[in-house]
Write a structure and sequence with these properties.
CATH architecture: 2-Layer Sandwich
Protein name: Trafficking protein particle complex subunit 2-like protein
Keywords: Cytoplasm, Endoplasmic reticulum, ER-Golgi transport, Golgi apparatus, Transport
Organism: Cettia cetti
Radius of gyration: 14 Å
Distance between the termini: 20 Å
CATH topology: Beta-Lactamase
Strand order of the largest sheet: 1-2-3
GO biological process, one term: endoplasmic reticulum to Golgi vesicle-mediated transport
GO cellular component, one term: endoplasmic reticulum
Length: 133
């Protein structure tokens, strides 16, 4: 999860031994997200949510993107060998993430733009990652 200024609100990776590689991949994909948003221009305003789809594939991973109306960016990196995940499943996972993020934003004790420290959000992300693995 990244705020509109592209600094991270929440990053989670499994397995953790390649965490630095995933951070690099996610940060480089933000450029692709920005390119897709600027290419869509006015069409972005008309949509309630924006699923960007596959941002780019690498040899080992596929990187997907999603942007909310408030320009919060969600980036998901999935192992390329996982052929069970189709576009509909990825879209559904992003919707689930967006709903959980909305719940966090509704918390009166959360300051927008702060890093996310929520046990409920962690639990939801962990369960989603276990389904994929």
């Amino acid at each position: 999860l990244f705020c509109p200024q592209n600094y991270p609100l929440y990053i989670r990776s499994v397995p953790t031994e390649n965490e630095l590689k995933f951070h690099y991949t996610v940060h480089t994909s933000l450029d692709v997200v920005d390119e897709k948003i600027s290419a869509m221009g006015k069409a972005l305003v008309d949509q309630r949510e924006l699923y960007l789809g596959l941002l780019y594939p690498t040899e080992d991973y596929k990187v997907y993107g999603y942007v909310t109306n408030s320009k919060v960016k969600f980036v998901m990196v999935v192992d390329s060998s996982n052929t069970a995940l189709r576009d509909n499943e990825i879209r559904s996972m992003f919707r689930k993430l967006h709903n959980s993020y909305t719940d966090i934003m509704c918390n009166p004790f959360y300051n927008p733009g702060d890093r996310i420290h929520s046990r409920a959000f962690d639990t939801m992300v962990n369960s989603m990652m276990m389904q994929v693995c």
